[in-house]
């Protein structure tokens, strides 16, 4: 029976600030017969952590950070507490009367020793070593330190959660729990009581400072992190007011002690409320309203929805077909995947995953989960309603949502689209395959392994459709980008080499240069020149870099990409269709000159092409022309379409996604374009118009790249007007309004260029 008293004592761990190591002289071990009294402490051998008593709110000076509390729910009444370890290995904490406030089970370990380790784990082991009989890491409180696990044992159901303190002064278990839910695809939830208030750890990628690990197998699932740099302290804490934060210790520059700085904190915005937008709703923190229905879905309660009460969610406009194989998918890019409680995960490849979803009528969406090491990928299949879906500006994953054919439309300025089956891809001229001799350097696998530090995640530049890309430094110090092709290619060595030689022959200042390749066993590697400024996408869609792109740079990029594409289409000896032109495939050199990358990759990958048919879906969905998306037919005009999308993205700074926004303006202010730079509006408007000409529904209406290059160079007076997209026309008919087109401003009335006059 412990009364609630003002002054309480608790046993704690505290982080020792490195400059203050000298404060402590105590040892790190503790054996039967020893007594740790209030006022004394154990200190880990490297001085990083100390175990001692504290009084919340008063006796912890600024230099201590409490990272673990033994008797969090049974505080001692005063400062007479004693910690001891008995001969049977049981730790116990008692007061002057011998009343026990906290204890651990006894163990069979002979000659038990308690020890405070350098990583803050307080352990009990036998004198002979061996497994720990007990360890504090198995009993986390509100803090996750490197080496600790947020964990669930699938066999026994045992869990290790984090639970907040009651308040900043009360270490007792508070209202918020951070726990790992093993059902379906494991995910992490922050609970308030039993209510899920937040899911996922958005900082789920590795940073240079620390490495994150998420493991799930038949026996267990856990989340863990480690610090890459031992001199950097980092911890994850569930704060008493319901925030989950990653804190990093920053040494102060001068004499002072330094401080914990918030590296990441969540929930950070309203999108992160659980099921915030209801079923089939999608949240975008940068949009107003925050919630929208997925393409092909309408609000269930339109009135509530318009009042920004989104909890009823959305419902399907057209029922999926299932029988006739006509359903398709819409891509939601940069998504935080929907609630995965009911998800089924298997190891199917991309195409099988899609087919698997189509085959099962209850499947509503799929995603490919990239597992970099070993080149394997996983297939995630959702059934039933999708909830808890949001999109980020950058990062996140691709999610494919099943729709009935009728709802698969291209939407102007969203251009979201989908794939039906993707039938015949004509093999390009046979003579192309019979490639001419070119001495393309063949790299040794060992050299590439060394150059990329064993394909280390630290060297990872990005993840393309065909596999991860790593930065490497060859022995001669030259920096290169190494593309490691996914193992799914069934292509033979000779065919691969033929294709690679073909690519190597393509040389243009707006194409990334292939330096060589490497084939070794299952490994297929392509070695490219390294582009220090990386992809255009990070500049366009990043939060801050957009302002670096003044108009002159954007203009140079647009014209450069146009020339590179023209070369692929016409000027090279062969007619090459890129098929995956997008911001991420436009790389920037030191001077921000654009270079198209990944050209020809689609062909390299058409491994099952022997009968002139490919089942492999290539391309990136937001950039696909309607005819390619629907019927799989592609031509240079489908590249022109992708180019048009890219131009509009370069101007607007907004990415195309699979969300149907009721009103989305091509807002030049939001794109960072107008932030302080004088811009020639005539050029901007010309580019917008050319972009729109390129994204017309019908391929025959779109200009060829040669014409585009001419238009970019000429004045805009004689440019044709783009035709009204069929989708808009159909809508307007349905709504009973006029179908007449009044040119640019009428047809594309969601483009606003009017509010720029005064700038
Ligand atoms: C400390 O608390 C114990 C248990 O309530 C009590 O027996 C003891 O007298 C107290 N000692 C002091 C010094 O207050
Ligand atoms: C272990 O030793 C402590 C102290 O001697 C005692 O209180 C406790 O009951 C013992 N536990 C077992 C399981 O024997
Ligand atoms: C962890 O949290 C889950 C969900 O609230 C709960 O079922 C489980 O019992 C908790 N585990 C512990 C050890 O408190
Ligand atoms: C580790 O961090 C310290 C302090 O920030 C820095 O000085 C040091 O260079 C880092 N070491 C490595 C290997 O990154
Ligand atoms: C599917 O096929 C059946 C039989 O051919 C036909 O009656 C039905 O209308 C088709 N459904 C759709 C959505 O095309
Ligand atoms: C279809 O998916 C549901 C939900 O994932 C699953 O329970 C069912 O077994 C699947 N059916 C088939 C035929 O695979």
Radius of gyration: 30 Å
Listed once per kind, the bound small molecules are: 2-acetamido-2-deoxy-beta-D-glucopyranose
Write the CATH architecture name of the largest domain.
Answer: Orthogonal Bundle
The number of helical segments is 14
Q: Based on CA inertia axes, which overall geometry fits?
A: elongated
Biggest beta-sheet profile: 9 strands, mixed
**What percent of residues are in strands?**
25-35%
The total strand number stands at 42
Low-confidence stretches: 1-7, 15-24, 410-437, 606-618, 658-676, 726-759
CATH fold-level label of the largest domain: Transferase(Phosphotransferase), domain 1
Helices and strands in order, then pairings?
Elements: E1 10-15, E2 29-30, E3 35-37, E4 42-43, E5 49-54, E6 65-69, E7 82-85, E8 91-94, E9 100-103, E10 113-116, E11 122-126, E12 129-135, E13 143-144, E14 150-153, E15 159-160, E16 162-167, E17 170-181, E18 187-192, E19 195-199, E20 210-216, E21 220-227, E22 234-238, E23 244-250, E24 259-266, E25 281-284, E26 291-293, E27 297-299, H1 302-306, E28 314-316, E29 328-336, E30 344-346, H2 350-359, E31 363-370, E32 377-383, E33 389-391, E34 397-403, E35 418-419, H3 430-433, H4 445-451, E36 460-464, E37 467-473, E38 479-484, H5 493-505, E39 514-520, E40 523-529, H6 536-541, H7 551-571, E41 586-588, E42 594-596, H8 601-605, H9 626-631, H10 636-652, H11 681-694, H12 705-713, H13 726-734, H14 743-747
Parallel strand pairs: 25-33
Antiparallel strand pairs: 1-5, 1-6, 2-10, 3-7, 4-5, 7-8, 8-9, 10-11, 11-12, 13-22, 14-15, 14-21, 16-17, 17-18, 18-19, 20-21, 22-23, 23-24, 25-26, 27-28, 29-33, 29-34, 29-35, 30-32, 31-32, 31-34, 36-37, 37-38, 38-40, 39-40, 41-42
Helix pairs in contact: 7-10, 7-12, 10-11
Bound molecules: 2-acetamido-2-deoxy-beta-D-glucopyranose (NAG) (6 copies).
EC number: 2.7.11.1
Membrane topology: Single-pass type I membrane protein
Region (Disordered): 731-759
């Amino acid at each position: 029976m412990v009364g609630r008293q003002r002054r309480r004592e608790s046993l704690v761990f505290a982080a020792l600030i490195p400059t203050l190591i000298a404060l402590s002289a105590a040892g790190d071990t503790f054996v039967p017969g020893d007594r740790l009294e209030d006022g004394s402490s154990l200190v880990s051998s490297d001085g990083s952590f100390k175990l001692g008593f504290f009084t919340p709110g008063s006796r912890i000076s600024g230099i201590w950070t409490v990272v673990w509390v033994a008797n969090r729910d049974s505080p001692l009444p005063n400062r007479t507490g004693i910690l001891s370890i008995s001969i049977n290995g049981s730790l116990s904490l008692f007061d002057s009367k011998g009343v026990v406030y906290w204890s651990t089970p006894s163990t069979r370990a002979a000659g038990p020793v308690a020890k405070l380790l350098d990583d803050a784990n307080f352990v009990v082991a036998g004198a002979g070593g061996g497994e720990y009989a007990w360890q504090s890491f198995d009993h986390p409180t509100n803090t996750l330190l490197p080496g600790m696990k947020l964990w669930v044992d699938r066999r026994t159901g045992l869990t290790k959660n984090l639970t907040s303190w009651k308040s900043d002064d009360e270490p007792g278990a508070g209202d918020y729990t951070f726990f790992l839910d093993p059902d379906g695809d494991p995910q992490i939830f922050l609970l308030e009581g039993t209510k899920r208030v937040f899911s996922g750890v958005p900082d789920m990628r590795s940073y240079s400072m620390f490495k994150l690990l998420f493991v799930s197998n038949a026996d267990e699932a856990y989340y863990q992190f480690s610090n890459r740099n031992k001199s950097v302290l980092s911890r994850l804490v569930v704060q008493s007011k319901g925030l989950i934060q990653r804190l990093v210790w920053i040494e102060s520059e001068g004499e002072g002690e330094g401080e914990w700085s918030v590296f990441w904190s969540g929930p950070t915005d309203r999108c992160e409320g659980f099921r915030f937008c209801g079923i089939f709703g999608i949240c975008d923190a940068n949009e107003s309203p925050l919630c929208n229905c997925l393409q092909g879905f309408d609000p269930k309660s339109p009135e509530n929805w318009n009042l920004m009460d989104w909890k009823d969610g959305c419902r399907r406009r057209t029922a999926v077909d299932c029988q006739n194989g006509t359903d398709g998918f819409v891509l939601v890019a940069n998504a935080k995947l929907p609630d995965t409680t009911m998800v089924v995960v298997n190891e199917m490849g991309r195409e099988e995953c899609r087919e698997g979803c189509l085959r099962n009528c209850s499947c509503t969406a799929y995603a490919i989960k990239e597992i970099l090491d070993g080149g394997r990928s996983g297939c995630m299949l959702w059934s039933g309603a999708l909830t808890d879906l949001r999109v980020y500006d950058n990062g996140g994953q691709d999610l494919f949502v099943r729709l009935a054919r009728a709802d698969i439309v291209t939407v102007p300025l969203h251009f979201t689209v989908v794939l039906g089956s993707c039938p015949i891809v004509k093999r390009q001229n046979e003579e192309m395959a019979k490639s001419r001799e070119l001495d393309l350097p063949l790299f040794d696998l060992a050299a590439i392994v060394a150059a990329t530090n064993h394909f280390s995640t630290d060297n990872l530049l990005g993840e393309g459709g065909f596999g991860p890309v790593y930065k490497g430094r060859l022995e001669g110090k030259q920096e290169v980008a190494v593309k490691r092709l996914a193992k799914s290619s069934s292509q033979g060595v000779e065919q691969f080499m033929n294709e690679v030689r073909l690519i190597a022959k393509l040389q243009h200042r707006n194409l990334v240069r292939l330096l060589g390749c490497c084939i070794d066993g299952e490994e297929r590697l392509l070695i490219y020149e390294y582009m220090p400024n990386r992809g255009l996408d990070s500049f366009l869609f990043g939060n801050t870099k957009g302002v670096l792109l003044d108009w002159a740079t954007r203009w140079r990029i647009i014209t450069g990409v146009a020339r590179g594409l023209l070369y692929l289409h016409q000027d090279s000896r062969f007619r090459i269709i890129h098929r995956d032109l997008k911001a991420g495939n436009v790389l920037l050199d030191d001077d921000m000159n654009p270079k198209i990358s990944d050209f020809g990759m689609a062909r390299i990958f058409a491994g099952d092409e022997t009968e002139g048919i490919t089942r492999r879906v290539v391309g990136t969905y937001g950039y696909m022309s309607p005819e390619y998306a629907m019927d799989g037919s592609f031509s240079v005009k489908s590249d022109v379409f992708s180019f048009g999308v890219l131009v509009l993205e370069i101007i607007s700074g907004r990415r195309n996604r699979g969300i149907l926004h009721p009103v989305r303006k091509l807002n030049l202010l939001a794109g960072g374009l107008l932030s302080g730079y004088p811009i020639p509006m005539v050029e901007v408007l010309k580019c917008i118009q050319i972009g729109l000409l390129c994204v017309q529904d019908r391929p025959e209406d779109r200009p060829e790249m040669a014409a585009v290059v001419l238009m970019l160079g000429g004045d805009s007076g004689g440019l044709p007007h783009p035709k009204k997209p069929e989708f808009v026309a159909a809508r307007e008919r349905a709504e009973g309004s006029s179908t007449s087109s009044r040119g640019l401003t009428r047809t594309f009335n969601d483009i606003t260029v009017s509010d720029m006059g005064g700038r």
